[in-house]
Amino acid sequence: MITFESELDAVSQLSIDQQEMLIDILRKRNAEVRRRQILEECREGLAEYRAGVLKAQTAEEAIADLRSYVES
């Protein structure tokens, strides 16, 4: 079984340049995964809006809803 600690040990054996390349690759991959998550959330929100689950709001209404949520 691969553990987080064993992976860190393996990375520490890489050269500094290789570690920096790995960091860059991981950041790009994480950004892509996050973009896909945001896209899916947007699609779900749009589907809910089209289904009538969500309603259109003015900025003032949205802010009031957020304040009410935070205060409760």
Topology:
Layout: H1 4-12, H2 16-50, H3 59-71
Pick out its properties:
79% helix; 72 residues
How would you describe what is shown here?
With 72 residues, the chain is an all-alpha fold. 79% of the residues lie in helices and 0% in strands. The chain starts with a helix and ends with a helix. It has three helices and no strands. The protein has one domain.
Briefly say what this structure is.
This protein has 72 residues and is mainly α. The protein contains 3 helices and no strands.
- SSE ordering: HHH
> How many individual domains?
1
What proportion strand? under 5%
- N- and C-termini, Cα separation: 45 Å
**How many beta strands in the DSSP annotation?**
0
Question: Rg, please?
Answer: 21 Å
Low-confidence regions: none
Instruction: Indicate the mean pLDDT.
Output: 96
**In percent, how helical is the residue content?**
over 70%
Going by helix content, strand content and strand pairing, the class is mainly alpha
Major sheet details: none
In DSSP terms, counting alpha (H) and pi (I) runs of 4 or more, how many helices? 3
> What is the assembly state of the chains in this entry?
single chain
| Overall outline | elongated
